[in-house]
Amino acid sequence: MRRDKSVDFEATEALLRAAALESASRMLSVLFNKANDFVSGQEYFCPDCTRRMHRAGMRSKSVQTILGEVTLDRAMYRCACGVTAYPADSLLDITGTSRSPGVRRMTARLAMRESFADTAEDLRELVGITVSVKDCERSAEQTGACVAAWDEERRNNPPNTIEPDVGDEIPVLYVEMDGTGIPVVKLETEGRKGKAADGIAKTREVKIGCVFTQTGVNEKGEPIRDANSTTFSGAIENAETFGMRIFTEAQRRGMARAKKVVVLSDGAEWIANLVAEYFPGAVHILDLYHALEHLAALCTLLFGKTGQMGTQMREGLSELLREGETAQVLESLRPHMPDHDADGKAAWEHFLYLGKRSHMMHYDQFREQGLFVGSGVMEAACKNVVGKRLKQSGMRWTVAGANKIIALRCTFMNREFEDFWADRTIKMAA
């Protein structure tokens, strides 16, 4: 009560919550200490030398839980070779950590969305858990590493590997790929060339891919992406490793049952190489907006940014490009192309870009088939999966740390984190 006899409801809530948590943490401590009853009387063998381990007294351990900090007394077992073990820790899933599974789960959910500093602040303010920023980082990355291993195992052992024809037919399965740079610590860029004027790299490329399905079109004949069908996967890794990653993800998503497989990309050479190796039978479509960007840049170089001729050429050729008339576009531009010298280098790069990818630009035919011609899903993925979390002001990542957070974000955005957590719990119980 305040002096004026009014009630401070918020203070009352806080006091009662603190009292309830303190009482609950004491109960939790009593219950967890009973874990020794489950492990006593059993034999334990050294994981290094396989000899029988002997009980060597009790050791205390403080554990941060969602109810507060509790102290556990656990039996220690020791081998003649010097290895020690705490079976109760394994039973309670706190081996090698002072954070309970509940705290680790909360930390992972927050840290995949916001900075580690914000995660620590939110845990303290919203849950009443005091965890250092560094502990948040360690905990989130540890969970991210487990998620990455779980995802790799699942992709490499898809349910349709043994019986690839089981399940409903998928009319169209799409695969999209792209790369986006993230800021990294200096150590991660040593010996790497950068795009900046000084030639020093300051970023590393995250290769990101997604898979989704399409069952039909709307009343206008426009393709409709199946709701909740998009899954993401990515990491900072070389093209060959990523190729196997996105290939196994497509397999897991039922590529063997797809009537048609479509790859949408920006036409990068490394992606074309992966398509040839892993998706040789796919329809490879160059993202329409990338094609239009190159055409617009070429027209600007040839005719300038302003002027009636430049405007007419740009608009007319863009319309032809949208209709899949790539050959006519190139023939219209060829008489205006400059010499192959330093001054004309940029123009020829755009011209050759379009020419080499003309087989990927039959947009009229793709529309007739009811297919997507734009890679908007992938552009959004670069921003939402990677950019929002890993490109915040002042951030500098290690490759290992970034990959763990990327694994976390992909799993959350795939709506599969609960599957991961359940699988890990089942394996622990087994």
Keywords:
single chain, alpha+beta, 430 residues
Say what oligomer this is.
single chain
- Residue stretches low in confidence (pLDDT < 50, at least 5 long) are 160-164
Instruction: List how many beta strands DSSP finds.
Output: 10
How confident overall, as mean pLDDT?
Answer: 90
- Into which percentage range does the β-strand content fall? 15-25%
Major sheet, described briefly? 6 strands, mixed
Radius of gyration: 28 Å
Structural classification: alpha+beta
Helix content: 40-55%
Quick one: overall form? elongated
Q: What order do the SSEs take from the amino end to the carboxyl end, as H and E?
A: HHEEEEHHHHEEEEHEHEHHHHHHHH
Tally of helical runs: 16
State the end-to-end CA separation: 53 Å
Protein architecture, described:
- 48% of the residues lie in helices and 18% in strands.
- By secondary structure, it is α+β, with helices and mostly antiparallel strands.
- β2 (52-65) and β3 form a beta hairpin.
- α9 runs antiparallel to α12 (345-356) and α10 (308-322) runs antiparallel to α11 (326-333).
- The protein is elongated and about 90 Å long.
Fold topology:
Blueprint: H1 9-33, H2 35-39, E1 44-45, E2 52-65, E3 68-78, E4 84-85, H3 87-92, H4 101-111, H5 116-127, H6 133-156, E5 170-183, E6 203-217, E7 223-225, E8 231-235, H7 239-252, E9 258-265, H8 269-278, E10 283-286, H9 288-303, H10 308-322, H11 326-333, H12 345-356, H13 363-368, H14 376-390, H15 399-413, H16 417-429
Parallel strand pairs: 5-9, 9-10
Antiparallel strand pairs: 1-2, 2-3, 3-4, 5-6, 6-7, 6-8
